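Worked example 3. Consider a protein that binds DQA.
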Amino acid sequence: MANLLVLHGPNLNLLGSREPEIYGHATLDAINTDLAARATAAGHALQSFQSNAEHALVDRVQAAHNDGTDFILINPAGLTHTSVALRDAMAAVAIPFIEVHLSNPHAREPFRHTSYFSDLAVGLVAGFGPIGYGLALAAAIQRLDANDSKAR
Ligand code: DQA
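Given these inputs, the predicted complex is written out as structure tokens:
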């Protein structure tokens, strides 16, 4: 059994009502509930955490180093394009992660074309709306299960 952590950055608590034409209609609770159910069905455990505060996300990433987290899915939201501190935390804990975006940042304003996370990530899912989280989880589980069977 692996432990997965889903991290959501600033303003993602507003999903469902925030610019639904860009981010879709699903609420963050609905996304988290769906992910937890999928992880459980695959025999894994999944926790989620959202914050509007950069330092709270950095603290949660640092905690992941000691709480048995095996894999992270992260949508850093606006911090994608600004946060050296959150990037440094991800590099410091060295837990493999997938970067997720509901929208396709590359099809949007130029300031969204830079990510401080993509070069550290195992992979990136962007542009598919809320189902992108499920796609990222499927990829993470496949990787965790493959590593597990190699270890046996
Ligand atoms: C986002 C894209 C970011 O550019 C934006 O700041 C967000 C959400 C996405 O999921 O599409 O808050 O990460």
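Take a moment to read the result before moving on. Helices lie at 20-23, 28-41, 54-64, 84-93, 131-151. Residues 98 and 122 are 6 Å apart (CA to CA).
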